[in-house]
User: Fold Regulator of G-protein signaling 8 from Columbina picui.
Amino acid sequence: LTPLLPHLDHRNRGMRTRLGCLSHKSDSYNDFTAILPDKPNRALKRLSTEEATRWADSFDVLLSHKYGLAAFRAFLKTEFSEENLEFWLACEDFKKTRSAAKLASKAQRIFEEFIDVQAPREVNIDFQTRELTRRNMQEPSLSCFDQAQGKVHSLMEKDSYPRFLRSKIYTDLLSQTQRRLS
Assistant:
């Protein structure tokens, strides 16, 4: 037993180091500007306080705005839950698929990446929804992910969205747009 103790201590120290790195994940306005679709300064000059304030009106308003989506994605990264948004966006893109040939392969890719048990970016959905989606995969259609997408949307809206509105990313962004006015 004694020879194992140094090995265990070494593993624990390594784990503490890794966890320490994770805890330094930032939740700041600068993290948001780093992933803006345009050059950050030019993009923020175009973003009005009114637009950024409207993101608090509803979750769907936030998702429909290019910079709102970027800010929410940056926030989810700080919470290590960006797979929810990525799945939702993949479903939105999937619904635009017009080629029957591409439909099945796109559906399979989304299923393997987000829905399947132990998927690399598995979303948190209940067993029934997962199984319904699995059955839908036998004959993929544009609506085969609707229930799973709805559950993930609801989870983000009820859980992540209120925290986003209280986050440093969002409050710093609002402050930044207001400072430009003064």
